[in-house]
Design goal:
Largest sheet: 5 strands, antiparallel
Structural class: mainly beta
Order of helices and strands: EEHEEEEE
Shape: globular
Number of domains: 1
Protein name: Small CPxCG-related zinc finger protein
InterPro entries: DUF5795
Oligomer: single chain
């Protein structure tokens, strides 16, 4: 699993998923580059796939430089 720096702090995939979700998650995959820029500050965006519950899989996106985050829920 790869750790990344987000807003000046090193985070694990689980911690990144918690930042996006706002609460604990069951499991998280490795962090990857999202190949997109932050819509708020233009910074680099990273992504992580995670399971917030037993029946759901979500891909979360987080800017490495500011508070912006989103997920792929419709």
């Amino acid at each position: 699993m790869s750790n990344r720096v987000v807003q000046g702090r090193m985070v694990t995939p689980e911690k990144l998923a918690e930042l996006v979700e706002g609460e604990s998650v069951l499991e998280a995959e490795s962090i990857t580059d999202a190949d997109r820029d932050c819509p708020e500050c233009g910074g680099d965006v990273i992504s992580v796939g995670y399971m917030p519950s037993v029946t759901e899989f979500v891909t979360g996106y987080k800017c490495q430089d500011c508070d912006w985050s989103a997920d792929d829920r419709e």
